[in-house]
Specification:
Blueprint (H helix, E strand, L loop, with lengths): L2 H12 L3 E2 L3 E5 L5 H8 L11 H12 L8 E9 L5 E9 L6 E8 L8 H15 L4 E7 L3 H9 L3 E12 L2 E11 L5
Parallel strand pairs: 5-6
Antiparallel strand pairs: 1-2, 2-3, 3-4, 4-5, 6-8, 7-8
Helix pairs in contact: 2-3
Length: 187
Amino acid sequence: MTARRQGKRVLQDRGWVLETPRLTVRPMQISDADDYHRIRGLMPFDPQSRSLDESRALVAAMVTRPAVDAEGWGQFAVIDRASGVLVGDLGVNFDTPRARQAELGFAMDPAWRRQGLAVEAAGAMVDALFRSGRTRVTALTDARNIAAQRLLARLGFRIEGRFVDSWQDGDQWYDELSYARLASEHR
């Protein structure tokens, strides 16, 4: 990127740095890749199967996107403000601008769970997505993932469907639940 374009990107990125009482949610940086890889590998219902080098390459590719909210997936680091530790991440699939939708995903380090941090981070992101003009935010979760279902319900998402045997984990197939929330339902 040219210096002028980098400056524009930095200004755009600032709109996607979210502060909550306990957290900073910001676009992921290359220096976050190792923690991102470690945390994603600890997920009970969708542990990533990429190598560390593949995770680093994925984050590097996201960092070079023309804008944080360009079409496609973007990753956001969830940082504990008191310690500066990366405690999780949010993934956002920014759909085409015309559709003005986004899909949300999240992962928290098991050592930082059960403190309401995922709800705090995801809630801030949902607010930001609606402020940015998105009209609909969706999320998919493994039907076995009760914690994710509770988080989405706390954020005002509703179940829109069940996809039967749509997710393979090892040799087994599992159902996924589709959730959504509309801007018109936003408080």
